[in-house]
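ARCHIVE CARD
Drawer: 12
Card no.: 0347
Subject: one protein chain, sequence and derived structure
Cross-reference: see card 0346
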Amino acid sequence: MPVFVIHEHHAKRLHFDLRLEIDKALKSWAIPKGPSMNPKEKRLAIMVEDHPLDYATFEGKIPEGMYGAGTVLIWDKGKFEITDGSLQQGKLDIVFYGKNLKGAFALAKMYGKDKEWLLIKKKDKYADYKFVLENVLKVR
């Protein structure tokens, strides 16, 4: 089963990076407001450049002056499976097996957009309508 990681990225602005192991690389999306376990909250996910697989274990500080300067922490990691769809179709149905991200999600490309997708939690036993991201942020 392939791996996923979500980096909590404290750059100019806090954002989260979802990375999925697909085709021997980490396909990546920046999620400005972070993922949500609430099915009522659709989260913008902007597709960014692929990363090498070994980036799945990266935590550290990107030095000032470099692209993405700031602290990068692993917010969640685990395994995932695509149950339907494909990148080419612009829609993935995904089941995550992580500590913070669990259960079924949809990752769907926005109509007429090149890089903009939505990450949406599906209604299942892991759905949390009172989810607050700040309650599960890393503190270091």
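Annotation on reverse: The longest strand covers residues 70-86. The chain has no helices and nine strands.
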